[in-house]
Write a structure and sequence with these properties.
With 101 residues, the chain is mainly alpha-helical. 98% of the residues lie in helices and 0% in strands. It is rod-shaped. The mean pLDDT is 90.
Length: 101
């Protein structure tokens, strides 16, 4: 009877140890998965943040480039119009001088 009781206690002990091992393994797997998702979320957030910062820099750079390009084109158009105006003024004076004299 004592032998059966000892065997029963031993089997119960082994069963409890197996349950503890399974619970521990489940806890470790859960902990690893949570850590993986937290790290993945952190890296995703950082990458997205860097992307947005770089995107804003590119937008600002593009806007500045377009402003500079527009200013250059306006300056060229102004110079062209001024040149045409000066030439037409000169031509008109020459034609008037030619008619008068």
């Amino acid at each position: 009877m004592e032998q059966n009781n000892a065997n029963a206690i031993y089997k119960h002990f082994l069963k409890t140890q197996e349950e503890i091992r399974k619970t521990g393994l489940g806890f470790v797997v859960s902990l690893v998965l949570v850590a993986f998702f937290l790290l993945g979320g952190y890296f995703y957030y950082m990458t997205l943040s860097d992307f947005n910062e770089e995107n804003e820099k590119i937008k600002k750079s593009y806007i500045e480039f377009q402003k500079h390009l527009l200013k250059t084109r306006v300056d060229h158009a102004y110079s062209f119009i001024e040149t045409i105006w000066q030439n037409s003024e000169k031509d008109t004076k020459e034609k008037l001088w030619a008619r008068v004299y």
